[in-house]
Amino acid sequence: MSVFDRSRRKFLYGTCVMAVMPLAYGWAVASARAAGTTAGEHDLHLINGIIVDGDGSPGYRGEVAISKGRIVDIGRRVSGTARQVLDVQGQVIAPGFINMLSWANETLIADGRAQSDLRQGVTLEVMGEGWSMGPYSKQTRQAAIDAQTDIHYPITWNSLDEYLSMLERKGISVNVGSFIGATTVREVVLGYGDVQPTQEQLGQMVALVGDAMRDGALGVASAIPYAPGSYAHAAELVALAREAGRHGGIYATHIRSESETLLEAIDEAIEVSRETRTPVHIYHLKAAGVQYKAKFPDAVARIEAARSAGLRISADIYSYTSAWAILTIGIPPWAQAGGLDAFIERMKDKAQRARVVAEISAPKAGWENFYQLAGPGGTLLVAFKSPALQHLAGKTLAQIAEMRGTSPVNTLIDLVVEDRSPVSSIFFLTDEEQVREKMKIPWLAFGSDAGAPSADGMFLETLTHPRSYGNFSRVLEHYVRGERLLSLEQAIHRMTALPASILKLGDRGRLQAGYHADVIVFDPARIETHATYEHPHAYSTGVSHVWVNGTHVLKDGEPTGAHGGQVVRGHGWARDGGHDGHSDLS
User: pTM of whole model > 0.90?
Assistant: First the structure.
């Protein structure tokens, strides 16, 4: 019987203390049970909880001791005394969740509390899919500033490490780590064109990856369907992945296709690992488009065969049926060569525009055409750069086309041209049946593929994907408690120890003595997701307390405003660079 089963049974029959006691728990001074020991030996004791330590084993009633940012003792009864003792009254004590695919890059600049994720129990945001917040050239720095939409900020740093260190100095409530973006590297060296690197240019790209790895990047990550990353051939990806692996990192990838050529794209990712011996992680594994859903079992089989052959292949998923991307993914890559301004200029030419319209409309486009995969009715516009277009947010492409009296394809092009941005959009690409199947696969971790905003202030001016607020809570509420597709222990393992292992983090992801004290307390019977597509800015509930590196950042379900977050650096930091006490090494 899982921890949730036990908790639910007690809840239903009124015998569980947590069902009849208030959710706000007060602090207490250590009682006489600790008499005879040295007062203040530890900073904190969590008592009377259900320990789910992250390794997938059954939970048990026990206690956790924390001191100086680390877990110092764990078991049915910890030794010594503590300056503070918190009776969690039967709630689950677990490691903090790791968001394997986060786009909190900008939201953390605006608000370091990361409330949408923090309130779900997330304690580590892992960023860098394709694009990272450095390094910059003069050209790419200006392009990044020009591309800013609702969050505006000066780019005062050059390297990825300088960005991450800036966040830590500024103050954040969650930990942060990042891959170096393969597209970022390509843009710095090659610009935005559909070109292939010379050997000298490829060497420059490899050197940038090496620099980032020595600065503590977790690896290199690609987003191949998006221009200009889509112009990269396999040899380029192999070279970058090999360099990341040489420094102890991994290669993560949004594979070249999740639809028509899904299996070939899986093979390409596996081949990178086979050729370089670098671990490969596949972002948001899926078969996109109802016409391609039958490919999913074969995709899983190919990955499992590679794993059985000794290759380190992993993947993550999100708990929703829709993707959050940009409208320009429906535009042929050749038309985007040179960047957004070049595309806008091409659309002034009637012949080129007619060619783009014809290719977008073709049932088999030859690239990852989300327009065809989701359809105009399955494409929801989320946010615009131009205030004049913001009233269209929350409407589908089909609805906007009808309002304007233009075809959906021409409407797509017009919106990109008028907004002078890629246009943030949600695409409904899979069905619930596929999501349920993914919940049963034990080697899949979880990533929101979203930012970490707050449900207040400037964030309310634009829409977002509901998974920004519900990716992790939805797993616990809907698939663990509701459909019982996986146990609570299995779900927690896939949110904690599994992603830590994928990222090669040696002292996070488990409740274990010596590990960083990234610890959460929650009631599995009361986890609830409130965000919807119509009203996405709504916090999940049920998580009572969160500590990040021993700092209490969420108390009684509300942020404390404390900044416990640190930069989590990869193996190359200690192997080839320095050591600041924050690196996570096996």
Answer: yes
